[in-house]
């Protein structure tokens, strides 16, 4: 078990056949655990990261010592579980374009910082390969859809960040397509 003291990790899972997928990001204060034999995990630090490793017995004793500790841990598990179930239920229902739009929207909602003009700044934005892994959309199409959004002045791309200039318009595009 581990606790991210500082930083951020990208967590990817793969199966025995080598199929892999970027699953989620873990930020400061998140717990890292393993899936044992079911999946192979890959953790990549996206910035300077410090992890405190804890023996499982000590960790569970800590969790049971206080209701707030247990609630925090369960909240993290539920979010991951909900994300996985959501992916399974919606994976083939949306077009590739909508999956990319939804990913950008979710990143803004979960990791973005609202700016004074109501745009949303997302730092340490995903690579095109990460986006392809999450959405199942080919990297060339990711680039195409991001360019379309940029041409419509909905987003602005930079190397390490993206600005969602019109979050409401992005949400409307998603809703119209669903």
Automatic annotation (TrEMBL):
Q: Which domain of life is it from?
A: Bacteria
Pfam families recorded: HTH_Crp_2 (PF13545)
Q: Which GO annotations describe the biological process of this protein?
A: regulation of DNA-templated transcription
Q: Does the keyword tRNA processing apply?
A: no
Annotated GO MF terms: DNA binding; kinase activity
InterPro entries assigned to the protein according to its UniProt record, in alphabetical order: cNMP-bd_dom_sf, HTH_CRP, RmlC-like_jellyroll, WH-like_DNA-bd_sf, WH_DNA-bd_sf
Q: What is the lineage of its organism?
A: Bacteria, Bacillati, Bacillota, Clostridia, Eubacteriales
Q: What is this protein called?
A: cAMP-binding domain of CRP or a regulatory subunit of cAMP-dependent protein kinases
């Amino acid at each position: 078990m581990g606790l991210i003291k500082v930083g951020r990790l990208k967590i990817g899972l793969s199966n025995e056949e080598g199929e892999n997928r970027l699953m989620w990001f873990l930020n400061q204060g998140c717990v890292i655990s393993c899936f044992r034999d079911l999946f192979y995990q890959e953790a990549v630090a996206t910035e300077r990261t410090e992890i405190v490793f804890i023996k499982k017995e000590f960790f569970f004793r800590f969790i049971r010592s206080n209701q707030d500790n247990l609630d925090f841990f369960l909240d993290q598990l539920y979010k991951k579980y909900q994300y996985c179930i959501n992916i399974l239920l919606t994976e083939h229902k949306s077009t590739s374009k909508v999956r990319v739009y939804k990913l950008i929207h979710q990143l803004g909602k979960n990791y973005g910082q609202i700016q004074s003009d109501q745009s949303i700044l997302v730092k340490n934005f995903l690579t095109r390969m990460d986006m392809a892994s999450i959405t199942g959309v080919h990297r060339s199409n990711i680039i195409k859809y991001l360019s379309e959004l940029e041409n419509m002045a909905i987003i602005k791309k930079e190397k390490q960040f993206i600005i969602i200039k019109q979050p409401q318009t992005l949400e409307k595009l998603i809703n119209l397509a669903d």
